[in-house]
Amino acid sequence: MTNAQLFEIAISWFRAQQWEPFPFQKRSWEAFLEGRHGLLNAPTGSGKTYALWLPIVLDFMKKNPAYATRHQPGLKAIWITPLRALSLEIRQSAERVTRDLGTQLTVGIRTGDTSPAERAKQKKQMPDLLITTPESLQLLLATKGYPALFRNCSAIIVDEWHELLGTKRGVQMELGLSRLRALSQDLRIWGISATIGNLEQALEVLLGPYTVAMQNSVLIRAKLNKQISVKSIIPPEIETYPWRGHLGLRLLEEVIPIINNSRTTLLFTNTRSQCEIWFQKILEQHPEFAGEIAMHHGSINKETRVWVEQAIRNESLRAVVCTSSLDLGVDFAPVETVIQIGGPKGVARFFQRAGRSGHRPGKESVIYFLPTHAIELVEASALKKAVATQAVEDRMPYLNSYDVLVQYLTTLAVSDGFYPGELYEEVRQTFCFQALSREQWQWILNFLVLGSQSLQSYDEYKKVEVEADGRFKVNHRGIALRHRLQIGTIVSDAHLLVRYQKGGYIGTIEEWFISKLKTGDVFTFAGRNLEFIRIKEMQVHVRNSRKKTSKVPSWMGGRLTLSAQMSQLLREELYSAGMAIGAQSEEIKALKPLFDKQRIESIVPRPHEFLIETFKTTEGYHHLFYPFEGRFVHEAMGSLLGYRISLLAPVTFSLAFNDYGFELLSDKAVDIQQVLDNDLFSPDYMLEDLQKSLNATEMARRKFRDIAVISGMVFTGYPKKGVRMKHLQSNSQLLFDVFKDYEPDNLLYQQAYTETFEHQLEEGRLRRALERIARQEVCWKTCQRPTPFSFPIITDRLREKLSSEKLADRIRRMAEKLMKR
Length: 821
Hints:
The protein is α/β, with parallel strands linked by helices. 44% of the residues lie in helices and 16% in strands. It has 33 helices and 27 strands. The strands form 6 sheets. The chain has a 7-stranded parallel β-sheet, with helices on both faces. Strands 8-13-12-9-11-10 form a 6-stranded parallel β-sheet, with helices on both faces. Strand 3 (107-110), helix 5 (116-124) and strand 4 (129-132) form a beta-alpha-beta unit. The chain starts with a helix and ends with a helix.
């Protein structure tokens, strides 16, 4: 069959479904059938799955004219998904195509949820089309004889590539693709990405910057101009002294009519604890929703999550309170409306969530923005502008992730082994390791064999043996088993299973939260009040309780910060408060009472101004700075400034920060003029001062825990016998201290510092922020009392000292006192 004939088959199939193919789908079919690689950029719900499943099947039909009667088993294509939850839907799409076109192609799934029986079946005979995750692909590479498995594989599709890019899972994927390229000469590599700014670079990372694949590649943009309608829920009364503690619950009654007027509504929260609280409060105040509202987040057990997803499709639920667990590609046609509770902190995340509604080509997506405090209305206004301009963030790829490389090389050594001379150039073809020197490569090989220079005396770190012919191989069964159990790059706090004492699995909770509980304590989890009984074998035993409680688990991963683009949009919207009323958005107009009060006490900065406020309370002397750059940058900038001020005069500070600014609180006043005269906002010597100001060693030590786990230096334990987090921490800290004292040129030790500055403290953004402030006119305002801008920052500091009820009462009294004045 010719490509033109195959094209006609594809169009006929589409029309049989009562669909008409989009131009981007036709371009994808054409490019794939021509043997090209590529990246497809298309919005959620636009039919991007069929843009690539169809040509994979058509290409098979072209190469196998007797496809209808003869079936040659073996792996022919792989579809990588970052979320296991998406795999069922992807399989349904694939099976629909293979069945309707009369092929005998089989479709299978291999993820962490696949049963041992199904895995054993796949070991004997792989499906023709395999849907899997980055981690499961690496496990296949750890299988003896894996080259034969992939030899006839003609396509690999990496779905939701924007989710993997800029993470270590993305690096893991780059290395896996480099191996598959070498094994299968006919392999075509494609990525699918819904929301990303740096698309050209994303394609480079996917294919490798200097590969033959990159030279024969195409970037396809859908250009569908998906309509997104953003509606702000504006409070009837604007608080002039805002704080984030009530999580937007004051506006709960505004949400009820929206739920009642939609087929199905998704309420997105930014954290799992916020999700639990909203679910409870809706049911408390509206018990009539019992059985019609559910909750979905990553710590609830899989059976419940799958039930909720199916219930959305069946339209048996009115609303679901959820987190990022429902961000990606699951197709929920009945969802008409999305409500975003609190600022999503990034434009791409907001687009992704908006796309959950109207999840069909040509349908409008409707998203409501519910602010958790008044100033978040500025974010709502900024997001409306982002939607209008279609501006989306870049995702910056990782470079030189040596821990992932060590894990990958051990994976290959566990299976058939590898020859370093053959593999070096293959690894250097990836974007992450394009600058890997011979010396660094040799260091990593020595690390695999000897366990690094300072650990040579300890056999447990010597994992790989060099055989007589130069092959690097793991021959110890125990080492191979432990390695397979630990393949992956997602490292978080130890998770404990939560189950009823009499059986029945509920979900997982991080160890650090449970460690604070005493027997008899009641906490809210998975929408129910549970009484803590005991921990036994890494399991938390509980029973149902009727007691009321304010204890809600929070997860360490729950801290989001403003993206660089979101920060810039936020500043632009804030500056518009000084413009004529006609040029302002409805959100900025609604904030007039707050801005008026801010102007009475201080100023609302204009584009060329940088605001500093100082005032005294019974707590001490408050010094507030407003860069509007996000909490991570503010944490670093606050520490840097505090250190530089202490060099002028002996003073100690406590630091508080949020996405809008930071506070230095001290027991003596700081002469801000002296700060300005000494150019303390200068980006010069920034890195050196930052290392001294923060406990950079302590931060790097915490970062090193993840690196030690990924590289295999620390073992996280066997199933149901996990190593406790404090033991993991102490093991990795011990290694960190050894390297610090005896081997400071250790690449993994150095990587801990690099990641601390580049990823955690966002060193590049900090430098650009300091350069921007240096160009602005500094406005230092000596205030009589806290201002509306400062109030959310100074009240945030109180939350560490007080329970949630006491905190709410204390802040309410503070706000009332300030209002009277």
